Amino acid sequence: LHGSPLTDAGLALLNPALSIHPSLVALDLGDCMLGDEGINLICGLLPPDGAKSGLKELTLSANPGVTSKGWGRLAIAVAHSSQLRVLNLDYNPLGDQVAGMLAVAVASSRTLEVLDLEGTGLTNQSALTLLDMVENYPTALRTLILAENNISPELQQQISDLLSEGEEEEEMEAREVTAREKSPWICQNSKTS
User: Fold this and answer.
1) What is the pTM of this model?
2) How far apart, in Å, do the first and last CA atoms of the chain sit?
3) pLDDT (tens digit, 9 = 90+) per residue, 115-159?
4) What phi and psi, each to the nearest 5 degrees, are found at residue 86?
5) Were both Cys, which of 90, 98, 114, 152 would link to 71 (CB 3.0–4.6 Å)?
6) Is 59:28 a contact under the CB 8 Å cutoff?
7) What is the mean pLDDT of the chain?
8) In Å, what is the CA distance from 34 to each residue of 70, 87, 102, 114, 181?
9) Bridge partner list, 123
């Protein structure tokens, strides 16, 4: 639906069908002229942990009519969603306050792997909050896009390096677990020979 002049009223008409669709996993509502009412409807498509299945990928790029109240509501839904893996919020005027709310949501989420915040009016203040989150809280986040913001290249690089370290640590842990799982089998096998 990207780029269609859907508005909140149009989304309200579509929402009943979207909410009962048995296999809807990705939704692109970028540049659809949505506001806070639309965000409230979208939050219903991000069920909390243990509830029904929900969206795995959500794109809300370029919807400048959403206020910080709407983004705050979305951040809460993301924090409790058991499904969402990719969230694209690029080219929305989010600013540092909303970025702070999103950092809390990401720190709470066990599933969010990609967050696109390109061109969202963030500054080094946001980057420091996001850096603190990545440094001190275990998250599933692997990709954080911060291009076209007023953030120093050094801070962007620090965040990128920490996200890369997390991937490397996970790969090593996975290899160690695999080795441990194989070791008892090898030992048992050699005893029976």
Assistant:
1) 0.84
2) 63
3) 999 999 999 999 999 999 999 998 999 999 999 999 999 999 999
4) -130, 130
5) 98
6) yes
7) 86
8) 10, 16, 19, 22, 50
9) 150
